[in-house]
């Protein structure tokens, strides 16, 4: 029994862990900016030793001297050698920036970890302290400190480090709070890991990369502020700094504008290199996080996400052999009940292909030629497991495929209109008025910033051209129709003030509000509790009977299919494998996949006997 | 019957209310339940019923306000973190979401070795143990060097089960472990749970919203509603012939995967709803 | 809504008290022997003691602070130790300059950022690339460096603007525009870099939300959904970044005022700092703190107007 039946035969093996560093040097911008920073770093270390002159030695003959062989960058307003000053200043400026950085890093990271992980009073105190520090413009605090303790680069930068600490604190705090609620941290606690181990293994590894990125940004800010202070003439004039040199150049901007160039270049290039490096690191990191997040959403919503499809495609390419793809769809003839509902076809899908453009320019196909007929007034179930392409098919009909998705082949005919060729403008006349949509997740499908009423009234006015009063009346009567106890109150409420079941009723009201002929319902009850699901299914059935609209019901639940559908199509890996009246599918399914799905249903199985009986049985054996 | 492995008596769990002077929220209002060694007790309820809170309280992840939880005769409701750590080889967990329950940046081997090293198992022995565990849950040995994202939901759930088994626990709290899985995967993972139980004699507190799933795996079943247990008994009785009106509603609400039977059930449910409304 | 506003105002007032107390303690206590610093090294011990008594420096700290606070509440921040001018008088004459600079920059930055951010998010392609590039450069280069370049190019080389000096709006509106244009550009580039990037990100995020698809499924055009629903939901995070940028702008203004020789708060605070004129420094700190607290309160109110969850909780 422990054979790994759900194990794909060929798991693609992406590089296990590529270090951040390696990902940076793979990009040209990363290499260049890292190179610049290394050069600046080397100069910072050896600058004072290679400086040709004493940076503070003034000479009257050399005042504002232009570049010469002896003084390649000329001399400043006091006749001091610019090159020597620049070399020595690099050390001062870099060390000053590092001092601010390390101070901020230590305070911010440690307090962020403690507050985020343990919460409690420390959390409240540090949150308050953070908003206090952020309520003051940094430079004003630095000026105040300068007024008190006099000119000192080091004290100024230490103070600035404290002021910058919230940047780390907020970052670490947010990351820790997010990680803390992850189930793997709970699992680690249950496994007996102590707090120290959990922080070092599970939490530090998550915040490490963002901290490095933040440090690049903070270093840039520290350099800017430090040179800004020196530029204002508030620094220690005995020490050469980039800002001080810039100030000297600015004072002589009319006489010798070139003097400004060198310190400005030093500040500008270092800052740009730091920012670019941070950007490259963020890009490298976000790409992996994005993939992760997409996959998680794929499981959370089980629909609408390409990632789920991608994973399953990766997993099944081996088993999706040619004859499976070209095998004909098994079609069951109409039984008496299905024939009774047989009207004209309202939606005709032929050989539909849907693909997603990939980064490398190729197209990943997720629907491989689906054909589907929906008759007027029938409920048609589209059933399949996650990644089967059922939701993609539904979105393709609505013209609402997620970014990057498009129809790559086949046709969709809706009462004579070719939807596969329809423009955005053509669709505006069709969506809402002719085809409605009921989504899966009730909460995320209502705009949190607008009242429920306004979200119902807006489409009514827009697509039916009703007056505000008429639209409001209609919305209220719809809310009453879908079984909302107090329509007026719900009309005025915001989405977060109603329950999930109520929100789903609101969405159903919205979908039927414009009297469409076809409704596409994408897993309309999956997110609901089972008792609420039963009520919503009743509502859907009544509305469908009342308004004689066709319903395309996308679901993975055979119970829902049995409850509502007249006919069913079974999807597997982007193809329809079997289609027919609901009783034929449940009664005598022919396709092995349909059969295996039906076989996996637990409902009919026997209950497990109580423990005692099992033991006696074992004893008797 | 022998002494229960786990006994929960009149358990109350309260969470502080949000905002100043807000009333605390009572997630569990005096819940009693017991589990024998080697037994599966299914816990059914809808969202907000408190079923997950009960599981977390047993795991020491939810604050116990009142009542008691005894494991193997010892009170474990109010242990300190370090006392709790000693229990890690006794009580383990498998969570619902197979994506968030495995650290995405750790390899399968690192995930499985973690609980072993905490226990001081030597690294050679631990590696040996990882191989056995992977085999037990039906994963190939070369899975050890891979990251969770390379696996499907069902496979991740197998990794989570292997981690729970690493320390040979006597009780595993399973919090909706198959809810995020596809139908066919769900059946196979459930069978794996049963197979492991029959081989190792581990007991399960099996939490689910799905009566069919609970019926398949549980010896006994308890039904929760608004922080209380409204009905409990043998699996077959509770899941097929429920007594309490809420369980009956729950039972009737789940659609049967058969059009004709479902039609009958629908009629029966509507009849039940009218009688309960009138009564 | 009202309790929310009152709570925010109360916490702002508390914060102001704390800032003033901490600033007072640090400035007046750790400044060493203030009377001697005013009178110079040659003054005799008696004269110094007399000066200290005159300034009230011989009393306990709390008494001194309480005195300062009660006069500050009536708008009296004392007199400059060196010029003898009323601190409140010099502050108020300079506040207008700094505020016109900072508010002007905020308005310019907000408008440009929204346009650029929305365009970049919706059109993608080269507009997006340009916005990204501007964002990186604007973020990386310190504002005062940009200011220096602007002075060099537009004032000195091209002569389009005056390099220095300030014309009040009341004297000549066009003169005012000419005197603040370069400083505002210098300050705005950095702010635009951050805010436009945030607008782009939050619009992209809002566009990928499920409710956008649902609203479109009801027959609303994409443009309508973007301008009514997406922008409103993207506004919150963008405002938060704008608030942070505003505090940064006050810092930036201190340096930029110096470069363009604008007689604002920045210039005043630099002078007071280098001479150790504590009452003036104290006044500057308090005024800046008040501005930031008021702006944060306004931003919070705007957030509440945009987001019902904030408003109703």
Q: Determine the most extensive contact between two protein chains.
A: A-B, 78 and 105 residues
- CATH-defined fold name of the largest domain in chain C: MetI-like fold
Structural class of chain C: mainly alpha
Total separate domains of chain A: 3
Supply the number of helical segments of chain A: 24
What is the oligomer described by this structure? heterotrimer
CATH architecture label of the largest domain in chain C: Orthogonal Bundle
Unreliable segments of 5+ consecutive residues of chain C: none
Characterize the largest beta sheet of chain A: strand count, sense, and whether it forms a barrel: 7 strands, mixed
CA-atom Rg of chain C in angstroms = 24 Å
Write the layout of secondary structure elements.
The complex is a heterotrimer of chains A (621), B (279) and C (313).
Chain A: H1 20-25, H2 28-50, H3 82-118, H4 120-134, H5 138-149, H6 153-180, H7 183-190, H8 195-231, H9 242-251, H10 258-301, H11 306-316, H12 322-326, E1 330-331, H13 336-340, E2 345-357, E3 363-375, E4 379-383, H14 390-398, E5 405-414, E6 417-418, H15 424-430, E7 435-438, H16 452-464, H17 468-481, H18 487-492, H19 500-513, E8 518-522, H20 530-547, E9 550-555, H21 558-564, E10 567-572, E11 575-581, H22 582-587, H23 592-599, H24 611-620
Helix pairs in contact in A: 2-3, 2-10, 3-4, 3-6, 3-8, 4-6, 5-6, 6-8, 8-9, 8-10, 9-10, 10-11, 16-17, 16-19, 17-19, 19-20
Chain B: E1 6-15, E2 25-35, E3 40-44, H1 51-58, E4 66-71, E5 74-75, H2 81-86, E6 91-94, H3 108-118, H4 123-136, H5 153-165, E7 171-175, H6 183-200, E8 203-208, H7 211-217, E9 220-225, E10 228-234, H8 235-240, H9 245-253, H10 259-278
Parallel strand pairs in B: 3-8, 3-9, 6-7, 7-8
Antiparallel strand pairs in B: 1-2, 1-4, 4-5, 9-10
Helix pairs in contact in B: 3-4, 4-5, 5-6, 9-10
Chain C: H1 2-29, H2 34-39, H3 45-55, H4 61-73, H5 87-123, H6 125-140, H7 143-157, H8 173-207, H9 210-217, H10 222-259, H11 265-275, H12 278-306, H13 308-312
Transmembrane segments (chain A): 29-51, 94-118, 125-145, 151-171, 206-225, 259-278, 299-320
Keywords (chain A): ATP-binding, Cell membrane, Membrane, Nucleotide-binding, Transmembrane, Transmembrane helix, Transport
Subcellular location (chain A): Cell membrane; Membrane
């Amino acid at each position: 029994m422990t054979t790994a039946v759900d194990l794909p035969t060929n798991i693609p093996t992406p590089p296990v862990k590529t270090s951040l560093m390696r990902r940076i040097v793979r990009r040209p911008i990363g290499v260049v900016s890292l190179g610049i920073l290394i050069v600046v770093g080397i100069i910072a270390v050896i600058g004072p030793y290679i400086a040709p002159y004493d940076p503070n030695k003034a000479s009257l003959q050399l005042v504002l001297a232009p570049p010469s062989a002896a003084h390649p960058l000329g001399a400043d307003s006091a006749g001091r050698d610019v090159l020597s000053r620049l070399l020595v200043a690099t050390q001062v400026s870099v060390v000053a920036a590092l001092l601010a950085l390390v101070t901020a890093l230590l305070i911010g990271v440690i307090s962020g970890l403690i507050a985020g992980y343990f919460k409690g009073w420390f959390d409240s105190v540090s949150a308050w302290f953070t908003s206090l520090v952020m309520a003051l413009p940094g430079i004003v605090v630095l000026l105040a400190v300068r007024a008190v303790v006099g000119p000192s680069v080091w004290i100024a930068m230490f103070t600035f480090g404290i002021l910058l600490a919230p940047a780390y604190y907020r970052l670490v705090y947010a990351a820790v709070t997010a990680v803390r609620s992850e189930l793997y941290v709970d699992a680690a606690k249950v496994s007996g890991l102590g707090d120290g181990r959990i922080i070092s293994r599970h939490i530090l590894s998550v915040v490490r990369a963002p901290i490095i990125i933040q440090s690049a940004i903070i270093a840039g800010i520290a350099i800017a502020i430090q040179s800004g202070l020196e530029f204002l003439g508030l620094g220690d004039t005995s020490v050469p700094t980039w800002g001080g040199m810039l100030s000297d150049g600015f004072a002589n901007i009319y006489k010798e504008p070139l003097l400004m160039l060198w310190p400005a270049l030093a500040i500008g290039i270092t800052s740009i290199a730091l920012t670019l490096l941070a950007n490259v690191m963020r890009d490298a990191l976000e790409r992996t996080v994005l993939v992760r997040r997409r996959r998680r959403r794929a499981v959370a919503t089980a629909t609408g996400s390409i990632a789920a499809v991608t994973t399953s495609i990766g997993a099944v390419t081996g088993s999706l052999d040619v004859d499976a793809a070209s095998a004909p769809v098994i079609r069951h003839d109409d039984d008496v009940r299905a024939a009774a509902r047989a009207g004209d076809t309202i939606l005709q899908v032929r050989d539909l292909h849907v693909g997603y453009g990939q980064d490398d320019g190729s197209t990943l196909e997720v629907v491989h030629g689906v054909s589907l007929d929906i008759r007027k007034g029938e409920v048609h179930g589209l059933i399949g497991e996650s990644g089967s392409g059922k939701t993609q098919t539904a979105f393709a009909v609505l013209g609402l495929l997620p970014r990057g998705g498009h129809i790559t082949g086949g046709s969709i005919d809706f009462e004579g209109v070719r939807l596969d060729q329809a423009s955005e403008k053509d669709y505006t006349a069709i969506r809402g008025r002719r085809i409605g949509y009921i989504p899966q997740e009730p909460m995320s499908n209502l705009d949190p910033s607008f009242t429920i009423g306004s979200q119902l009234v807006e489409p009514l006015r827009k697509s039916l051209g009703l007056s505000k009063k008429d639209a409001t009346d209609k919305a209220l009567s719809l809310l009453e129709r879908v079984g909302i106890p107090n329509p007026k109150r719900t009309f005025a409420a915001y989405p977060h003030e109603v329950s999930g079941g109520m929100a789903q009723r609101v969405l159903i009201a919205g979908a039927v509000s414009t009297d469409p002929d076809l409704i596409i319902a994408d897993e309309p009850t999956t997110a609901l509790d089972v008792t609420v699901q039963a009520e919503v299914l009743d509502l859907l059935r009544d509305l469908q009977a009342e308004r004689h609209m066709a319903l395309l019901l996308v679901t993975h639940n055979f119970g829902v299919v049995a409850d509502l559908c007249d006919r069913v199509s079974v999807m597997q890996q982007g193809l329809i494998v079997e289609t027919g009246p609901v009783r034929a599918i449940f009664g005598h399914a022919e396709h092995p996949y349909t059969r295996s799905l039906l076989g996996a249903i637990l409902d009919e199985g026997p209950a497990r006997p109580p423990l005692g009986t099992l033991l006696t049985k074992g004893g008797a054996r | 019957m022998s002494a229960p492995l786990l006994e929960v008596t009149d358990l109350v769990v309260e969470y502080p209310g949000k905002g100043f002077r807000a009333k605390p929220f009572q997630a569990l209002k005096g819940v009693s339940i017991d589990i024998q060694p080697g037994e599966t007790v299914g816990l059914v309820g809808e969202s907000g019923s408190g079923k997950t809170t009960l599981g977390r309280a047993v795991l020491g992840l939810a604050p116990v306000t009142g009542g008691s939880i005894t494991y193997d005769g010892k009170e474990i409701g109010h242990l300190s973190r370090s006392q709790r750590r000693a229990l890690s080889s006794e009580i383990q967990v498998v969570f619902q979401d197979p994506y968030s329950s495995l650290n995405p940046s750790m390899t399968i081997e690192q995930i499985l070795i973690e609980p072993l090293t905490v226990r001081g198992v030597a690294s050679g022995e631990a590696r040996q143990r990882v191989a056995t565990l992977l085999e037990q849950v039906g994963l190939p040995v070369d899975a050890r060097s891979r990251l969770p994202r390379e696996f499907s939901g069902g496979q991740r759930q197998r990794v989570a089960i292997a981690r729970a088994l690493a320390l040979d626990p006597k009780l595993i709290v399973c919090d909706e472990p198959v809810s995020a899985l596809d139908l066919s995967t769900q059946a196979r993972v459930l069978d794996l749970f049963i197979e492991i139980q029959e081989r190792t004699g581990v007991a399960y507190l099996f939490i689910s919203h799905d009566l069919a799933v609970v019926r398949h795996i549980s010896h006994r079943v308890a039904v929760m509603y608004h922080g209380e247990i409204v009905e409990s008994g043998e699996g077959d009785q509770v899941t097929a012939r429920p007594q309490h009106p809420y369980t009956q509603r729950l039972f009737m609400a789940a659609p049967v995967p058969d059009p004709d039977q479902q039609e009958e059930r629908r009629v029966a449910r509507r009849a039940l709803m009218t009688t309960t409304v009138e009564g | 809504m009202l309790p929310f506003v009152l709570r925010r105002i109360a916490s702002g007032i508390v914060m102001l008290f704390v800032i003033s107390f901490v600033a007072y303690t640090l400035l007046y206590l750790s400044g060493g022997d203030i009377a001697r610093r005013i009178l110079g090294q040659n003054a005799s011990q008696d004269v110094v003691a007399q000066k200290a008594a005159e300034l009230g420096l011989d009393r306990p700290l709390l008494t001194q602070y309480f005195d300062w606070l009660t006069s500050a509440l009536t708008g009296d921040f004392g007199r400059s130790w060196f010029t003898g001018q009323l601190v409140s008088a010099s502050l108020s004459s300079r506040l207008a300059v700094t505020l016109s600079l900072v508010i002007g920059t905020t308005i310019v930055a907000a408008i440009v950022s929204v346009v650029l951010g929305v365009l970049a998010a919706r059109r993608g392609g080269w507009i997006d690339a340009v916005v990204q590039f501007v964002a990186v450069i604007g973020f990386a280069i310190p504002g005062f460096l940009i200011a220096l370049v602007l002075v060099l190019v537009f004032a000195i080389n091209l002569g389009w603007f005056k390099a220095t000096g300030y014309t009040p709006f009341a004297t000549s509106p066009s003169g005012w525009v000419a005197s603040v244009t370069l400083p505002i550009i210098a300050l705005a580039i950095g702010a635009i870099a951050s805010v436009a990037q945030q607008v782009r990100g939050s619009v992209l995020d809002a566009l990928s939300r499920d409710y956008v698809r649902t609203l479109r499924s009801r027959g609303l055009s994409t443009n309508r959904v973007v301008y009514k629903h997406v922008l409103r939901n993207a506004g919150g995070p963008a405002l938060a970044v704008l608030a942070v940028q505003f505090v940064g702008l006050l810092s930036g203004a201190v340096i930029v005022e110096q470069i363009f020789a604008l007689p604002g708060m920045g210039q005043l605070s630099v002078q007071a700092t280098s001479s150790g004129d504590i009452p003036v420094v104290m006044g500057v700190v308090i005024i800046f703190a008040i501005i930031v607290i008021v702006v944060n309160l306004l931003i919070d109110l705007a957030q509440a107007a945009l987001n019902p969850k904030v408003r109703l909780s």
